Amino acid sequence: MDNEKEDNQALKLQQLFSEVNNQELEEKETPKEEQDLIEIDVLNLPPRSEVHHKASVSFQMDLRSPLWRFLFVILLVVLVIGVVYYFFGNQITVFFT
Question: How is the chain split into domains, by residue range?
């Protein structure tokens, strides 16, 4: 029974490889038509400065200073505690009493 299973798997693999090889040969034999190829008119392309232009309105925070990073983390912690207290305030006060 084990040999039959191995033979069956081998036959399936051989069929798969033959299908793949046949498809590759068919693809090589069929030349691409000129209609399938897209022509790009190089003279009508936009300038590089327009293509790679970044939006002038962007928000950047400079957190290089340790003091600003510390204040930012403290603000986030206070916000998280405030949101948790807003939703679970009664349960927290009951838990600690």
Answer: 67-97
* Residue 33 zone, left/alpha/beta (φ > 0; ψ -120 to 50; rest): beta
Q: Are 53 and 47 in contact, with CB atoms under 8 Å apart?
A: no
Determine the length of the chain: 97
The answer to whether the predicted template modeling score (pTM) of the entire model surpasses 0.85 is: no
For 2-57, how does the pLDDT look when each residue is reduced to its tens digit (9 = 90+)? 666 666 788 888 888 888 888 766 655 555 565 567 777 778 888 888 888 776 66
Segments in the chain forming alpha helices (H): 2-29, 48-51, 66-96
C-alpha span between 63 and 78 (Å, rounded): 18
At residue 20, the 3 state secondary structure works out as: helix
What one-letter code names the amino acid at 43?
L
CA atoms 67, 68, 72, 75: torsion sign: positive
